[in-house]
C-alpha cells in the first residue's frame, strides 16, 4: 500500500504485482475494493484496522477437465497449489467424482495444516495406520468434526452428501452461531445441518443449487468440496 497508516474515509491504494507465472485470484479483508486494471486497487478506509490478504495462484493449469468457465476453477487450482488435493491423474482433476468420508476429512485436515492428532487411540476397525487418511480421521474425531457411522466404523469409502460436508466444515471452525435466515425449502429447522447451512450462507461458502434449493442429500463431488473449502 502507498501508506502505512490511514484515517477513516481516506482513499488508499493497494499495489499487488504477481511474480511471473502467477496471477491475483482473490483479495479479502476490505469492502468496496476497486480494481484499477494496472495491478493497483483502491478502497476507502473504514473506521477500523484492516487486514488485507491477497491470494496468488499459478497461471498454469495442468487439468484438462478444469477451465476458466467453471465455477470451481480457482478453487481447484488453489487446492492443488496448497497441497490439499491433487488430481486423479497428472492431467485430470475429476471434478464430478463423488467425495467419500475419508477424502473429505483429509481435505479438511490438510487445509488446517495437517496437524498431528494428540492421541493414537483409534476406535475404528476400518481405519488402519497405513491408510492415507489415518491421521486425518483421528484429528477429525478429536476436534468433534465427525464421529463414525457407528462406534467401531468410520465408513471411509461412504460417499458424503452436501449436508455432511458443510457440517464437517462448520464443526472444523468451532460450530459458530449464525443469525442468517435460510431460505432453502429443503433445509428445515432442527436438522443436524441446519445451523451449518445458515453459517455457510452467511459467510458466502455456498449459495445453494441453481434451483433455489440446497440439496442436502445430493452427493458432494470433488469440485463442490474444494469450492466450499476455498
Please provide a written account of the structure.
The protein has 230 residues and is an alpha+beta fold. Helix content is 25%, strand content 11%. The protein has helices spanning 73-81, 101-111, 134-142, 162-172, 194-202, 222-229, and strands spanning 11-15, 22-28, 34-35, 40-44, 53-58. It has a three-stranded antiparallel beta sheet, with no helix packed on it. Strands 2-5 form a two-stranded antiparallel ribbon. Strand 3 (34-35) and strand 4 form a beta hairpin. Helix 1 crosses helix 6 (222-229) and helix 2 packs across helix 3 (134-142). The protein starts with 10 loop residues before the first strand and ends with a helix. The mean pLDDT is 91.
Keywords:
6 helices, two-stranded antiparallel ribbon, 5 strands, single chain, 230 residues, alpha+beta
Write a concise synopsis of the structure shown:
This protein has 230 residues and is of the alpha+beta class. It is built from 6 helices and 5 strands.
Shape: globular
Taking the alpha carbons of the first and last residues, their distance comes to: 25 Å
Overall mean pLDDT score?
91
Largest sheet: 3 strands, antiparallel
Order of helices and strands: EEEEEHHHHHH
Q: Which spans have pLDDT < 50 for at least 5 consecutive residues?
A: none
Number of helices, counting only DSSP H or I runs of 4 residues or more: 6
- Give helix % range: 10-25%
Amino acid at each position: 500500500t502507498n501508506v502505512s497508516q490511514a484515517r477513516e474515509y481516506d482513499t488508499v491504494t493497494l499495489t499487488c504485482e504477481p511474480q511471473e507465472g502467477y496471477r491475483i485470484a482473490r483479495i479479502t479483508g476490505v469492502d468496496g475494493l476497486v480494481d484499477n486494471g494496472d495491478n493497483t486497487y483502491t478502497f476507502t478506509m473504514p473506521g477500523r484496522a484492516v487486514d488485507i490478504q491477497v491470494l496468488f495462484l499459478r497461471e498454469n493449469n495442468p487439468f484438462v477437465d478444469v477451465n476458466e468457465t467453471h465455477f470451481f476453477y480457482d478453487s481447484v487450482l488453489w487446492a492443488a497449489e496448497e497441497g490439499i488435493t491433487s488430481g486423479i491423474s497428472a492431467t485430470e482433476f475429476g471434478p464430478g467424482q463423488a467425495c467419500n468420508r475419508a477424502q473429505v476429512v483429509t481435505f479438511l485436515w490438510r487445509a488446517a495444516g495437517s496437524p498431528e492428532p494428540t492421541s493414537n487411540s483409534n476406535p475404528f476397525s476400518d481405519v488402519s495406520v497405513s491408510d492415507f487418511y489415518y491421521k486425518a480421521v483421528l484429528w477429525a474425531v478429536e476436534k468433534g468434526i465427525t464421529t463414525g457411522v457407528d462406534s467401531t466404523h468410520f465408513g471411509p469409502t461412504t460417499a458424503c452428501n452436501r449436508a455432511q460436508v458443510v457440517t464437517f466444515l462448520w464443526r472444523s471452525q468451532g460450530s459458530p452461531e449464525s443469525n442468517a435466515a435460510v431460505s432453502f425449502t429443503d433445509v428445515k429447522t432442527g436438522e443436524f445441518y441446519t445451523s451449518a447451512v445458515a453459517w455457510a450462507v452467511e459467510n458466502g461458502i455456498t449459495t445453494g443449487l441453481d434451483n433455489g434449493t440446497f440439496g442436502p442429500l445430493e452427493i458432494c463431488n470433488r469440485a463442490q468440496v474444494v469450492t466450499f473449502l476455498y
